[in-house]
């Protein structure tokens, strides 16, 4: 199942045993405080730029997921892959491909991710004209054979993204040759170096050339989509729950005071923000929207015994296990509903969104450890998410920057709004629509993503619409 991710070569995510351990060993040293601190600083700066754009917009924000995905892509690209995206790409004003490319960097990766299922299912000879084109790596050079637009687009995005990754690899390889390796190498440098030989014998390299590209692809994809989707749900949920938004803002005031965001520190402020309301928002968002709603696991060659409710069981060898994280995170035994859910409709995320589960009533700080195994948004054990701290630093920086000075609210139809404010019925209608999008408008491609649009508005704190 995970083999889909090995599009450009073997990856940390879709290999097993010794092979994946080697990739993890190469990447682990780069996930340190320096990297997480850079993710924090980059996220602060880019969110301020995004806020300027949103603030100047007359129309409601309808591209929340796209805008946030630009931001998270820029953060991971810059911090882990030494790639500075065009500033215009980050602010969304233009998205022109650079010389030698037919797609911009952002367009190439997002289109590649959208087209993974097509690339995986359509055999390479159907996509490419060259005789004997058996694997995807040779899709680059040859012209299209399939007349189907979806196939042409899939092939083009595959080839474009490969070109970008090869450029990154070659530039890094050249810089390593000229300057030697650094102690605090980025993920990109670590993988490129592991793929290099010190002699002419290619067996000298720790990993294959294909594994260098495979891992660049999977780290960028794993690092930006998941974070962008989590931020999108969190912002949309808070727009539906102004009461919780206010409580979170008060907590940010308590932690950050009047200090400008340029002075917020990863060392001093991030741990407090994570332990407070923003951390609770992240935890509760990930409980309801586990971006990977199931984890595929296998017992491999050994049967696995386990005990459940006092009885012994054995899962046979070579059994595929799909751990349903969405259901685990909603199991009423561990996660009782705060508001009774009526009828048989879809699960209602806005009513279920409850920060108090995570916070100490009096102190407002993190005070709850879920029962082991009942909450696994980043998985668990030796194959747990390597980017958890990175994702937390980024989430806290983005949310603190937005909500310290601004509020996000549902954009109700102004033409019908009363002079004194928005009528309760109009607001409730907008909330019902938003809740529907947050429920049935969500689908799984490579992660759980909101497909529909919820019109939102950014307003300065204190200028929120009143509901009358
Ligand atoms: C909110 C954000 C994120 C969530 C919810 C998340 C979730 C997860 C989960 C559940 C897994 C395990 C998948 C499985 O067992 O099948 C995983 C693995 C992984 N994640 Fe994340 N992730 C996030 C952010 C990131 C970031 C920012 C990075 C990189 C900078 C990253 C890199 C990875 C990698 C490389 C793996 C594979 C680890 C391995 O197989 O050994 N993730 N992530």
From TrEMBL:
Annotated InterPro entries? Cyt_P450 (IPR001128), Cyt_P450_CS (IPR017972), Cyt_P450_E_grp-I (IPR002401), Cyt_P450_sf (IPR036396), Cytochrome_P450_monoxygenase (IPR050121)
Q: Which Gene3D superfamilies match?
A: Cytochrome P450
Residues passing through the membrane, by range: none
The GO terms describing molecular function are: heme binding; iron ion binding; monooxygenase activity; oxidoreductase activity, acting on paired donors, with incorporation or reduction of molecular oxygen
Q: Which domain of life is it from?
A: Eukaryota
**Record flagged with keyword Membrane:** no
Cofactors needed by this protein, per the record, are:
heme
- In this chain, heme is annotated as bound at 385
**What keywords would UniProt list here?**
Heme, Iron, Metal-binding, Monooxygenase, Oxidoreductase
**What does the sequence similarity comment in the record state about its family?**
Belongs to the cytochrome P450 family.
Q: This chain belongs to which protein, by name?
A: Cytochrome P450
């Amino acid at each position: 199942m995970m083999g889909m991710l090995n599009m450009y070569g073997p990856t940390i995510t879709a290999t097993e045993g010794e092979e994946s351990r080697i990739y993890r060993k190469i990447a682990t040293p780069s996930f340190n405080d320096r990297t997480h601190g850079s993710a924090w600083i980059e996220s602060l700066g880019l969110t301020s730029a995004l806020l300027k754009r949103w603030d100047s917009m007359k129309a409601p924000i309808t591209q929340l997921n796209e805008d946030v995905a630009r931001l998270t892509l820029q953060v991971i690209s810059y911090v882990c892959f030494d790639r500075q995206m065009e500033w215009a790409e980050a602010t969304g004003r233009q998205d022109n491909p650079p010389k030698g490319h037919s797609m911009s960097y952002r367009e190439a990766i997002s289109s590649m991710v959208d087209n993974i299922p097509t690339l995986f299912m359509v055999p390479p000879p159907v996509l490419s004209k060259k005789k004997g084109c058996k694997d995807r790596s040779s899709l680059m050079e040859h012209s299209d054979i399939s007349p189907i637009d979806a196939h042409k687009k899939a092939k083009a995005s595959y080839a474009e993204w490969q070109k970008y990754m090869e450029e990154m690899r070659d530039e890094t390889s050249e810089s390593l040759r000229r300057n030697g390796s650094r102690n605090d190498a980025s993920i990109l440098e670590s993988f490129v170096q592991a793929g290099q030989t010190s002699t002419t014998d290619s067996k000298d390299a720790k990993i294959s050339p294909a594994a260098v590209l495979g891992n660049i692809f999977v780290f960028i994809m794993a690092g930006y989509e998941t974070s962008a989707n989590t931020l999108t749900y969190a912002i949309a949920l808070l727009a539906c729950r102004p009461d919780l938004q206010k409580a979170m803002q008060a907590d940010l005031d308590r932690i950050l005071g009047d200090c400008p965001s340029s002075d917020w520190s990863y060392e001093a402020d991030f741990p407090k923000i994570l332990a407070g309301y923003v951390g609770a928002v992240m935890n509760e968002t990930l409980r309801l929207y586990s971006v990977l709603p199931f984890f595929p696991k296998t017992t491999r060659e050994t049967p696995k015994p386990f005990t459940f409710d006092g009885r012994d069981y054995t899962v046979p060898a070579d059994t595929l296990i799909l751990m349903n994280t969405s259901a685990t995170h909603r199991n009423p035994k561990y996660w009782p509903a705060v508001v009774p859910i009526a009828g048989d409709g879809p699960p209602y995320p806005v009513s279920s969104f409850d920060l108090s589960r995570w916070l100490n009533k009096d102190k407002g700080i993190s005070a709850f450890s879920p029962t082991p195994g009942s909450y696994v948004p980043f998985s668990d054990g030796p194959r747990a998410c390597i980017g958890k701290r990175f994702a937390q630093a980024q989430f806290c920086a983005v949310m603190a920057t937005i909500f310290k000075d601004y509020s996000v609210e549902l954009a109700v139809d102004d033409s019908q709004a009363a002079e004194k404010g928005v009528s309760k019925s109009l607001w409730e209608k907008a909330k019902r629509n938003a809740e529907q999008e947050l429920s049935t408008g969500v689908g799984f491609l490579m992660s759980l993503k909101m497909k529909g649009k919820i019109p939102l508005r950014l307003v300065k704190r204190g200028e929120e619409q009143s509901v009358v």
